[in-house]
Amino acid sequence: SANASTSRAPAQQWSTRISFILAAAGAAVGLGNIWKFPYVAGENGGGAFVLVYLFCIALLGVPMLMAEVLIGRRGQQNPVNSMASLAREAGAKPAWKNVGRLGVVTGFLLLSFYVVVAGWALAYIPITATGTFVGLQPQEVGQMFDGHLQQPLPLIGWSTLVLLLTLGIVGRGVRKGLEKAANLLMPLLFVFLLILVGYASTTGHFGEAVEFMFKPDFEKLTASGVLIALGHAFFTLSIGGGAMMIYGSYLSPQVSIARTSILVAILDTAAALLAGLAIFPIVFAYGLEPGGGPGLIFVTLPIAFGQMPLGTLFGTLFFLMLSVAALTSAFSLIEPAIAWLTEKRLMSRFKASVLGGSGIWLLSLGTVFSFNIGADWTLAGKTFFESLDYLISGWMLPLGGLLMALFTAWVMKPEATAEELDGDSAAYRLWLVLIRFLVPVVIMVIFLQAIGVIKL
Ligand code: PHE
Ligand code: NA
User: Fold this and answer.
1) Any transmembrane segments, and where (predicted)?
2) Residues of the chain with pLDDT under 50
Protein backbone atom coordinates (compact mmCIF):
# COMPACT_ATOMS: atom_id res chain seq x y z
CA SER A 1 0.00 0.00 0.00
CA ALA A 2 1.10 3.60 -0.47
CA ASN A 3 2.28 4.38 3.02
CA ALA A 4 3.03 7.88 4.21
CA SER A 5 6.66 6.91 4.62
CA THR A 6 8.82 4.00 3.59
CA SER A 7 8.27 0.68 5.33
CA ARG A 8 10.48 -0.55 8.10
CA ALA A 9 13.23 -3.04 7.28
CA PRO A 10 12.17 -6.69 7.79
CA ALA A 11 14.32 -6.99 10.92
CA GLN A 12 12.18 -4.17 12.32
CA GLN A 13 8.91 -6.05 11.68
CA TRP A 14 7.09 -8.90 13.36
CA SER A 15 8.00 -11.99 11.37
CA THR A 16 4.44 -13.35 11.38
CA ARG A 17 0.91 -12.21 12.01
CA ILE A 18 0.77 -14.49 15.04
CA SER A 19 3.80 -12.77 16.55
CA PHE A 20 2.02 -9.45 16.35
CA ILE A 21 -1.11 -10.92 17.89
CA LEU A 22 0.87 -12.44 20.76
CA ALA A 23 2.92 -9.30 21.36
CA ALA A 24 -0.16 -7.07 21.25
CA ALA A 25 -2.03 -9.50 23.50
CA GLY A 26 1.02 -9.37 25.75
CA ALA A 27 0.71 -5.60 25.90
CA ALA A 28 -3.00 -5.84 26.59
CA VAL A 29 -3.08 -8.67 29.11
CA GLY A 30 -1.51 -7.34 32.27
CA LEU A 31 -2.16 -6.19 35.80
CA GLY A 32 -5.36 -4.69 34.43
CA ASN A 33 -6.78 -8.14 33.74
CA ILE A 34 -5.65 -10.12 36.73
CA TRP A 35 -5.23 -7.56 39.48
CA LYS A 36 -7.65 -4.76 38.59
CA PHE A 37 -10.53 -6.38 36.69
CA PRO A 38 -11.50 -8.90 39.39
CA TYR A 39 -11.46 -6.36 42.19
CA VAL A 40 -13.32 -3.61 40.33
CA ALA A 41 -15.87 -6.16 39.15
CA GLY A 42 -16.13 -7.35 42.75
CA GLU A 43 -16.55 -3.82 44.12
CA ASN A 44 -19.17 -2.94 41.52
CA GLY A 45 -21.41 -5.88 42.11
CA GLY A 46 -20.33 -8.37 39.44
CA GLY A 47 -22.62 -9.36 36.55
CA ALA A 48 -24.10 -6.04 35.44
CA PHE A 49 -20.69 -4.38 35.59
CA VAL A 50 -19.15 -7.18 33.52
CA LEU A 51 -21.90 -6.82 30.92
CA VAL A 52 -21.30 -3.07 30.55
CA TYR A 53 -17.57 -3.73 30.37
CA LEU A 54 -18.08 -6.22 27.53
CA PHE A 55 -20.17 -3.69 25.59
CA CYS A 56 -17.49 -1.04 26.07
CA ILE A 57 -14.81 -3.39 24.75
CA ALA A 58 -16.82 -4.33 21.66
CA LEU A 59 -18.31 -0.97 20.68
CA LEU A 60 -15.60 1.46 21.80
CA GLY A 61 -12.45 -0.48 22.61
CA VAL A 62 -12.11 -2.45 19.40
CA PRO A 63 -12.59 0.55 17.05
CA MET A 64 -10.13 2.59 19.12
CA LEU A 65 -7.61 -0.22 19.12
CA MET A 66 -7.94 -0.41 15.33
CA ALA A 67 -7.41 3.36 15.06
CA GLU A 68 -4.24 3.26 17.13
CA VAL A 69 -2.76 0.27 15.30
CA LEU A 70 -3.69 1.89 12.00
CA ILE A 71 -1.74 5.07 12.78
CA GLY A 72 1.34 3.05 13.68
CA ARG A 73 1.10 0.72 10.71
CA ARG A 74 0.71 3.53 8.21
CA GLY A 75 3.28 5.76 9.91
CA GLN A 76 5.93 3.00 10.18
CA GLN A 77 7.85 4.92 12.84
CA ASN A 78 7.73 5.80 16.52
CA PRO A 79 4.48 7.48 17.68
CA VAL A 80 5.82 11.04 17.36
CA ASN A 81 7.15 10.64 13.82
CA SER A 82 4.20 8.51 12.73
CA MET A 83 1.74 11.18 13.82
CA ALA A 84 3.88 13.84 12.15
CA SER A 85 4.06 12.05 8.83
CA LEU A 86 0.37 11.13 8.76
CA ALA A 87 -0.52 14.74 9.58
CA ARG A 88 1.67 15.83 6.67
CA GLU A 89 0.03 13.28 4.39
CA ALA A 90 -3.41 14.60 5.39
CA GLY A 91 -2.36 18.23 4.99
CA ALA A 92 -3.09 18.83 8.69
CA LYS A 93 -1.23 20.82 11.34
CA PRO A 94 2.17 19.42 12.43
CA ALA A 95 0.98 19.92 16.02
CA TRP A 96 -0.74 16.53 15.74
CA LYS A 97 2.63 15.00 16.53
CA ASN A 98 1.99 16.06 20.12
CA VAL A 99 -0.46 13.16 20.30
CA GLY A 100 2.55 10.91 19.74
CA ARG A 101 4.47 12.79 22.43
CA LEU A 102 1.54 12.42 24.81
CA GLY A 103 1.60 8.66 24.14
CA VAL A 104 5.33 8.37 24.84
CA VAL A 105 5.00 10.34 28.08
CA THR A 106 1.90 8.42 29.19
CA GLY A 107 3.60 5.05 28.66
CA PHE A 108 6.65 6.28 30.54
CA LEU A 109 4.66 7.54 33.54
CA LEU A 110 2.43 4.48 33.63
CA LEU A 111 5.44 2.17 33.63
CA SER A 112 6.84 4.01 36.66
CA PHE A 113 4.05 2.63 38.85
CA TYR A 114 3.44 -0.53 36.83
CA VAL A 115 6.91 -1.82 37.78
CA VAL A 116 6.12 -1.31 41.46
CA VAL A 117 2.91 -3.35 41.43
CA ALA A 118 4.59 -5.93 39.19
CA GLY A 119 7.32 -6.02 41.84
CA TRP A 120 4.74 -7.06 44.47
CA ALA A 121 3.77 -9.96 42.19
CA LEU A 122 7.38 -11.01 41.73
CA ALA A 123 8.04 -10.79 45.48
CA TYR A 124 5.01 -12.98 46.17
CA ILE A 125 6.45 -15.85 44.10
CA PRO A 126 9.14 -16.83 46.65
CA ILE A 127 6.94 -15.75 49.57
CA THR A 128 4.21 -18.16 48.45
CA ALA A 129 6.58 -20.90 47.27
CA THR A 130 8.20 -21.17 50.70
CA GLY A 131 4.85 -21.90 52.31
CA THR A 132 4.62 -18.60 54.19
CA PHE A 133 0.82 -18.50 54.07
CA VAL A 134 0.22 -22.02 55.32
CA GLY A 135 -1.90 -21.91 58.46
CA LEU A 136 -1.85 -18.10 58.76
CA GLN A 137 -4.91 -16.31 60.15
CA PRO A 138 -6.63 -13.84 57.77
CA GLN A 139 -5.42 -10.83 59.72
CA GLU A 140 -1.86 -12.17 59.66
CA VAL A 141 -1.99 -12.37 55.87
CA GLY A 142 -3.24 -8.78 55.79
CA GLN A 143 -0.44 -7.69 58.11
CA MET A 144 2.08 -9.39 55.85
CA PHE A 145 0.97 -7.35 52.86
CA ASP A 146 0.94 -4.12 54.87
CA GLY A 147 4.37 -5.00 56.24
CA HIS A 148 5.62 -5.68 52.74
CA LEU A 149 4.52 -2.19 51.66
CA GLN A 150 6.20 -0.60 54.69
CA GLN A 151 9.76 -1.39 53.66
CA PRO A 152 11.04 0.85 50.86
CA LEU A 153 14.30 -1.00 50.19
CA PRO A 154 12.92 -4.45 49.32
CA LEU A 155 10.15 -2.78 47.29
CA ILE A 156 12.77 -0.85 45.33
CA GLY A 157 14.74 -4.04 44.85
CA TRP A 158 11.74 -5.88 43.35
CA SER A 159 10.67 -3.06 41.08
CA THR A 160 14.28 -2.64 39.92
CA LEU A 161 14.32 -6.32 39.04
CA VAL A 162 11.12 -5.91 36.99
CA LEU A 163 12.65 -2.95 35.19
CA LEU A 164 15.91 -4.80 34.47
CA LEU A 165 14.03 -7.80 33.07
CA THR A 166 11.99 -5.42 30.90
CA LEU A 167 15.05 -3.58 29.60
CA GLY A 168 16.88 -6.86 29.03
CA ILE A 169 14.15 -7.95 26.62
CA VAL A 170 13.32 -4.62 25.00
CA GLY A 171 17.01 -3.78 24.55
CA ARG A 172 17.31 -6.78 22.21
CA GLY A 173 14.99 -5.27 19.67
CA VAL A 174 11.79 -6.27 17.92
CA ARG A 175 12.54 -9.79 16.69
CA LYS A 176 15.10 -11.05 19.19
CA GLY A 177 13.49 -9.34 22.16
CA LEU A 178 9.80 -8.46 21.98
CA GLU A 179 8.75 -11.16 19.54
CA LYS A 180 10.70 -14.02 21.09
CA ALA A 181 9.49 -13.19 24.57
CA ALA A 182 5.85 -12.91 23.50
CA ASN A 183 5.99 -16.18 21.55
CA LEU A 184 7.25 -17.97 24.64
CA LEU A 185 5.43 -16.18 27.46
CA MET A 186 1.92 -15.68 26.09
CA PRO A 187 1.09 -19.36 25.45
CA LEU A 188 2.56 -20.10 28.88
CA LEU A 189 0.37 -17.43 30.46
CA PHE A 190 -2.81 -18.93 29.03
CA VAL A 191 -1.78 -22.44 30.04
CA PHE A 192 -1.21 -21.21 33.62
CA LEU A 193 -4.56 -19.43 33.60
CA LEU A 194 -6.40 -22.53 32.41
CA ILE A 195 -4.67 -24.69 35.02
CA LEU A 196 -5.72 -22.23 37.72
CA VAL A 197 -9.32 -22.17 36.49
CA GLY A 198 -9.29 -25.97 36.53
CA TYR A 199 -8.01 -25.89 40.10
CA ALA A 200 -10.64 -23.32 41.12
CA SER A 201 -13.34 -25.55 39.68
CA THR A 202 -12.44 -28.22 42.25
CA THR A 203 -13.40 -25.95 45.15
CA GLY A 204 -17.09 -26.67 44.68
CA HIS A 205 -17.94 -22.98 44.40
CA PHE A 206 -17.42 -22.55 40.67
CA GLY A 207 -21.13 -22.13 39.97
CA GLU A 208 -21.37 -19.36 42.52
CA ALA A 209 -18.50 -17.54 40.82
CA VAL A 210 -20.08 -17.93 37.38
CA GLU A 211 -23.31 -16.55 38.72
CA PHE A 212 -21.55 -13.65 40.42
CA MET A 213 -19.71 -12.73 37.22
CA PHE A 214 -22.40 -13.31 34.62
CA LYS A 215 -25.79 -12.86 36.22
CA PRO A 216 -26.53 -9.17 35.87
CA ASP A 217 -28.19 -7.47 38.80
CA PHE A 218 -28.75 -3.93 37.57
CA GLU A 219 -29.71 -2.76 41.04
CA LYS A 220 -26.04 -3.01 41.91
CA LEU A 221 -24.86 -0.91 38.98
CA THR A 222 -24.24 2.79 39.60
CA ALA A 223 -23.33 5.61 37.19
CA SER A 224 -19.83 5.62 38.59
CA GLY A 225 -19.69 1.85 37.99
CA VAL A 226 -20.46 2.48 34.32
CA LEU A 227 -17.68 5.06 34.08
CA ILE A 228 -15.25 2.71 35.77
CA ALA A 229 -16.18 -0.06 33.32
CA LEU A 230 -15.56 2.30 30.43
CA GLY A 231 -12.23 3.62 31.70
CA HIS A 232 -11.12 0.10 32.45
CA ALA A 233 -12.02 -1.06 28.93
CA PHE A 234 -9.53 1.46 27.50
CA PHE A 235 -6.88 0.69 30.07
CA THR A 236 -7.11 -3.05 29.60
CA LEU A 237 -6.76 -2.85 25.81
CA SER A 238 -3.74 -0.54 26.20
CA ILE A 239 -5.45 2.21 24.24
CA GLY A 240 -4.13 5.76 24.15
CA GLY A 241 -0.62 5.19 25.47
CA GLY A 242 1.32 4.71 22.25
CA ALA A 243 1.95 1.01 22.99
CA MET A 244 -0.40 -0.30 20.32
CA MET A 245 0.81 2.41 17.94
CA ILE A 246 4.42 1.34 18.16
CA TYR A 247 3.49 -2.35 17.92
CA GLY A 248 1.37 -1.49 14.87
CA SER A 249 4.37 0.21 13.29
CA TYR A 250 6.17 -3.16 13.27
CA LEU A 251 3.22 -4.80 11.48
CA SER A 252 3.53 -5.76 7.85
CA PRO A 253 1.10 -4.11 5.39
CA GLN A 254 -0.45 -7.43 4.38
CA VAL A 255 -2.05 -8.18 7.73
CA SER A 256 -5.69 -7.27 8.42
CA ILE A 257 -5.87 -4.73 11.22
CA ALA A 258 -9.55 -5.41 11.89
CA ARG A 259 -9.14 -9.15 12.30
CA THR A 260 -6.01 -8.97 14.43
CA SER A 261 -7.44 -6.21 16.66
CA ILE A 262 -10.59 -8.22 17.29
CA LEU A 263 -8.48 -11.24 18.16
CA VAL A 264 -6.34 -9.21 20.56
CA ALA A 265 -9.49 -7.87 22.24
CA ILE A 266 -10.88 -11.40 22.53
CA LEU A 267 -7.65 -12.67 24.10
CA ASP A 268 -7.59 -9.77 26.54
CA THR A 269 -11.22 -10.29 27.51
CA ALA A 270 -10.69 -14.03 27.85
CA ALA A 271 -7.75 -13.40 30.17
CA ALA A 272 -9.82 -11.09 32.40
CA LEU A 273 -12.78 -13.49 32.56
CA LEU A 274 -10.52 -16.49 33.18
CA ALA A 275 -8.77 -14.56 35.95
CA GLY A 276 -12.17 -13.96 37.52
CA LEU A 277 -13.06 -17.64 37.16
CA ALA A 278 -9.75 -18.57 38.80
CA ILE A 279 -10.11 -16.12 41.68
CA PHE A 280 -13.80 -15.92 42.69
CA PRO A 281 -14.46 -19.64 43.31
CA ILE A 282 -11.55 -19.61 45.77
CA VAL A 283 -12.80 -16.40 47.38
CA PHE A 284 -16.31 -17.85 47.83
CA ALA A 285 -15.09 -21.27 48.96
CA TYR A 286 -13.34 -19.67 51.92
CA GLY A 287 -16.16 -17.26 52.73
CA LEU A 288 -14.10 -14.20 51.79
CA GLU A 289 -15.15 -10.85 50.34
CA PRO A 290 -15.24 -10.45 46.52
CA GLY A 291 -15.10 -6.66 46.99
CA GLY A 292 -11.69 -6.85 48.66
CA GLY A 293 -10.30 -3.92 46.68
CA PRO A 294 -6.70 -3.66 45.49
CA GLY A 295 -5.72 -6.20 48.14
CA LEU A 296 -7.98 -8.88 46.65
CA ILE A 297 -5.17 -10.90 45.13
CA PHE A 298 -2.45 -10.00 47.62
CA VAL A 299 -4.49 -10.60 50.76
CA THR A 300 -7.79 -12.35 50.07
CA LEU A 301 -6.31 -14.99 47.76
CA PRO A 302 -3.26 -15.80 49.93
CA ILE A 303 -5.63 -16.42 52.86
CA ALA A 304 -7.20 -19.14 50.75
CA PHE A 305 -3.86 -20.41 49.42
CA GLY A 306 -2.75 -20.91 53.02
CA GLN A 307 -5.69 -23.19 53.73
CA MET A 308 -6.42 -25.13 50.58
CA PRO A 309 -4.90 -28.42 49.46
CA LEU A 310 -1.90 -27.74 47.18
CA GLY A 311 -2.37 -24.04 47.91
CA THR A 312 1.37 -23.40 48.00
CA LEU A 313 1.87 -24.90 44.54
CA PHE A 314 -1.06 -23.19 42.89
CA GLY A 315 -0.48 -19.93 44.73
CA THR A 316 3.08 -19.84 43.40
CA LEU A 317 1.79 -20.56 39.91
CA PHE A 318 -0.69 -17.71 40.32
CA PHE A 319 1.94 -15.10 41.15
CA LEU A 320 4.21 -16.46 38.41
CA MET A 321 1.37 -15.96 35.94
CA LEU A 322 0.70 -12.46 37.25
CA SER A 323 4.38 -11.56 36.86
CA VAL A 324 4.45 -12.84 33.26
CA ALA A 325 1.34 -10.83 32.42
CA ALA A 326 2.82 -7.68 33.94
CA LEU A 327 6.19 -8.10 32.20
CA THR A 328 4.81 -8.43 28.69
CA SER A 329 2.81 -5.23 29.27
CA ALA A 330 5.86 -3.44 30.66
CA PHE A 331 7.73 -4.12 27.38
CA SER A 332 5.04 -2.25 25.45
CA LEU A 333 5.06 0.70 27.83
CA ILE A 334 8.70 1.57 27.33
CA GLU A 335 8.99 0.64 23.65
CA PRO A 336 7.44 3.92 22.38
CA ALA A 337 10.06 5.94 24.28
CA ILE A 338 12.92 3.71 23.15
CA ALA A 339 11.85 3.76 19.51
CA TRP A 340 11.48 7.53 19.70
CA LEU A 341 14.93 7.99 21.27
CA THR A 342 16.61 5.72 18.74
CA GLU A 343 14.81 6.96 15.67
CA LYS A 344 14.79 10.62 16.52
CA ARG A 345 17.79 11.31 18.63
CA LEU A 346 20.04 8.81 16.87
CA MET A 347 20.99 6.93 19.99
CA SER A 348 21.60 3.18 20.13
CA ARG A 349 18.84 0.95 21.51
CA PHE A 350 21.12 0.08 24.37
CA LYS A 351 21.76 3.69 25.33
CA ALA A 352 18.07 4.50 24.94
CA SER A 353 17.18 1.61 27.26
CA VAL A 354 19.64 2.77 29.90
CA LEU A 355 18.46 6.36 29.68
CA GLY A 356 14.73 5.55 29.61
CA GLY A 357 15.13 2.92 32.31
CA SER A 358 16.94 5.33 34.64
CA GLY A 359 14.18 7.92 34.28
CA ILE A 360 11.49 5.36 35.04
CA TRP A 361 13.45 4.03 37.99
CA LEU A 362 13.74 7.47 39.56
CA LEU A 363 10.07 8.15 39.07
CA SER A 364 9.11 4.74 40.47
CA LEU A 365 10.59 5.80 43.82
CA GLY A 366 7.67 8.22 44.16
CA THR A 367 5.24 5.30 43.98
CA VAL A 368 7.30 3.14 46.35
CA PHE A 369 7.45 5.92 48.95
CA SER A 370 3.75 6.62 48.69
CA PHE A 371 3.16 3.36 50.60
CA ASN A 372 5.56 4.14 53.42
CA ILE A 373 7.71 7.19 54.19
CA GLY A 374 5.78 9.36 51.73
CA ALA A 375 2.30 8.18 52.64
CA ASP A 376 1.31 11.69 53.71
CA TRP A 377 2.72 13.51 50.70
CA THR A 378 -0.77 13.97 49.31
CA LEU A 379 -2.43 16.12 46.70
CA ALA A 380 -6.19 16.61 47.07
CA GLY A 381 -6.17 13.66 49.46
CA LYS A 382 -4.40 11.36 46.98
CA THR A 383 -0.95 9.88 47.49
CA PHE A 384 1.67 10.16 44.74
CA PHE A 385 0.70 6.70 43.47
CA GLU A 386 -3.04 7.45 43.55
CA SER A 387 -2.53 10.81 41.82
CA LEU A 388 -0.43 9.24 39.09
CA ASP A 389 -2.92 6.41 38.57
CA TYR A 390 -5.80 8.89 38.45
CA LEU A 391 -3.97 11.23 36.07
CA ILE A 392 -3.03 8.43 33.68
CA SER A 393 -6.06 6.13 33.77
CA GLY A 394 -8.59 8.90 34.22
CA TRP A 395 -7.18 11.56 31.91
CA MET A 396 -4.09 10.82 29.84
CA LEU A 397 -5.10 7.48 28.34
CA PRO A 398 -8.68 8.57 27.49
CA LEU A 399 -7.38 11.88 26.07
CA GLY A 400 -4.76 10.09 23.96
CA GLY A 401 -7.41 7.65 22.76
CA LEU A 402 -9.86 10.46 21.95
CA LEU A 403 -7.27 12.39 19.94
CA MET A 404 -6.21 9.27 18.02
CA ALA A 405 -9.85 8.49 17.27
CA LEU A 406 -10.53 12.05 16.07
CA PHE A 407 -7.37 12.01 13.98
CA THR A 408 -8.19 8.81 12.10
CA ALA A 409 -11.90 9.66 11.82
CA TRP A 410 -11.82 13.31 10.80
CA VAL A 411 -8.27 14.36 9.90
CA MET A 412 -6.93 11.45 7.86
CA LYS A 413 -8.39 11.16 4.40
CA PRO A 414 -10.97 8.36 4.16
CA GLU A 415 -8.97 6.95 1.22
CA ALA A 416 -6.00 6.52 3.56
CA THR A 417 -7.93 4.76 6.31
CA ALA A 418 -9.80 2.70 3.71
CA GLU A 419 -6.48 1.52 2.34
CA GLU A 420 -5.36 0.31 5.76
CA LEU A 421 -8.70 -1.21 6.75
CA ASP A 422 -10.18 -2.98 3.71
CA GLY A 423 -12.26 -0.02 2.62
CA ASP A 424 -14.96 -1.96 0.79
CA SER A 425 -15.87 -4.20 3.71
CA ALA A 426 -18.91 -3.71 5.90
CA ALA A 427 -16.53 -3.79 8.86
CA TYR A 428 -14.85 -0.63 7.58
CA ARG A 429 -18.13 1.24 7.34
CA LEU A 430 -19.11 0.15 10.82
CA TRP A 431 -15.69 1.23 12.14
CA LEU A 432 -16.07 4.63 10.52
CA VAL A 433 -19.44 5.25 12.16
CA LEU A 434 -18.26 4.16 15.61
CA ILE A 435 -14.96 6.07 15.51
CA ARG A 436 -16.54 9.22 14.09
CA PHE A 437 -19.55 9.49 16.36
CA LEU A 438 -19.91 7.04 19.20
CA VAL A 439 -16.30 7.08 20.47
CA PRO A 440 -15.81 10.89 20.63
CA VAL A 441 -19.25 11.52 22.12
CA VAL A 442 -18.82 8.94 24.86
CA ILE A 443 -15.31 10.08 25.82
CA MET A 444 -16.36 13.72 25.89
CA VAL A 445 -19.28 12.84 28.13
CA ILE A 446 -16.85 11.17 30.53
CA PHE A 447 -14.65 14.26 30.56
CA LEU A 448 -17.59 16.60 31.12
CA GLN A 449 -18.73 14.47 33.99
CA ALA A 450 -15.21 14.30 35.43
CA ILE A 451 -14.89 18.09 35.50
CA GLY A 452 -18.37 18.37 36.96
CA VAL A 453 -20.14 20.04 34.03
CA ILE A 454 -22.68 17.27 33.87
CA LYS A 455 -23.76 14.82 36.50
CA LEU A 456 -24.42 11.19 35.62
N1 PHE B 1 -3.37 -3.12 29.24
C2 PHE B 1 -2.44 -3.21 30.32
C3 PHE B 1 -3.10 -3.96 31.47
O4 PHE B 1 -4.21 -4.39 31.35
C5 PHE B 1 -1.98 -1.86 30.79
C6 PHE B 1 -1.45 -0.98 29.70
C7 PHE B 1 -2.06 0.23 29.41
C8 PHE B 1 -0.32 -1.37 28.96
C9 PHE B 1 -1.60 1.04 28.38
C10 PHE B 1 0.15 -0.57 27.93
C11 PHE B 1 -0.49 0.65 27.65
O12 PHE B 1 -2.51 -4.13 32.49
NA1 NA C 1 -5.49 -5.74 29.81
Assistant:
1) 18-35, 47-67, 102-127, 155-174, 181-201, 221-250, 262-288, 308-334, 354-375, 395-412, 433-454
2) 1-2
